[in-house]
Amino acid sequence: MRGRWLFVAISAAGLLPVVAFLLIILWMGFWQGSPGEPVVYTLKHYQTLFADPSTYRTLVNTIGFASTTVLVSLGFAIPTAWLVERTDVPGKNLIFALVTIGALLPTFFTSMGWVFLLHPRIGIINKLLIEWFGLEQAPFNIATLIGMGWVEGLGLSSIAFIMIVASYRMMDPALEEAARVHGLGIFRTLRYVTLPLTLPGIVAAAIYIFTIGLSAFEVPAIIGMSNKIFTFSTYIFYKIQPLEELPNYGMAGAVSSLLVVLALLLSWAYFRMLRFSHRYAVVTGKGYRPRRVELGAKGWFCAWFFLGCYFLVAKFLPFVLLVWASLLKFFQPPSWAALEHVSLYNFYGLPWNLMLQGARNTLILMLSVPTLALILCLAISWTVLRSGLRWRLTFDAVAFLPHAVPQLILAIAAVFAALFLLHNVFSLYGSLAIVIIVYTISRISFATRIINNSLAQIHPELDEAAFVGGLPLLQVMRKILLPLLKPALVYAWLWMALLCYRELTMASVLVTSQENVTLPMIVWGLWLGGSLNQAAAANLVVLAFMLPAVTLYLIFGRRSRFTEAL
Amino acid sequence: MISLAGLRKDFQTGDQAVAALRGIDLEVGKGEFFVLLGPSGSGKTTLLRSVAGLEKPDAGEIILNGKTVYSSSRRISAPPEEREIGMVFQSYAIWPHLTVAENIGLVLTHGRARLPKNQAAERIRRCLALVQLENFDNRPARLLSGGQQQRVALARALAVNPALLLMDEPLSNLDARLREEVRTNIKKLTGQLGITVLYVTHDQVEAMVLADRIAVMSHGRILQIGNAFELYRSPATALVAEFFGSINWIRGKMLDGQRVESEIGPLVTETSRRYDGAVVVGIRPEDVKLDDAFNGVENRLDGNVVSSNFLGDQVIAEVKIKDKILVAKVSPEKERLAGNVAVQLPRNRIVVFPEKATGEPVA
Question: What is the ipTM of this complex?
Answer without folding.
Answer: 0.83
